[in-house]
Design brief:
2 helices, mainly alpha, Beta-Lactamase, two-stranded antiparallel ribbon
Length: about 80
């Protein structure tokens, strides 16, 4: 099992986790929780794409000199009903 698969398995089995979506920068769903409806995965992916676009704009407004991170970044959101 790959490191990615191991991590997803750990996330999936963590208490309280109801789902996950992994999407590319265009909002296309690459992976989703096995029990998650594909339409819901697409919906969450669309919301996250919009949120990250808006967040990027806010960061640029606050400090226009900062354009890119020098380290890897992670974006996460709880699966809220």
């Amino acid at each position: 099992m790959s490191e990615v698969e191991e991590t997803l398995e750990r996330i999936k089995n963590h208490k309280g986790v109801e789902g996950y979506v992994i999407a590319d920068k265009n909002g296309s769903v690459l992976r989703r929780h096995p029990h998650m409806d594909p339409a819901n995965a697409e919906r969450y992916s669309t919301y996250m794409k919009e949120l990250t676009t808006k967040a990027r704009g806010v960061v640029r407004d606050l400090n226009p000199k900062v354009r890119h991170s020098k380290t890897d970044e992670s974006h996460a959101s709880p699966f809220v009903r």
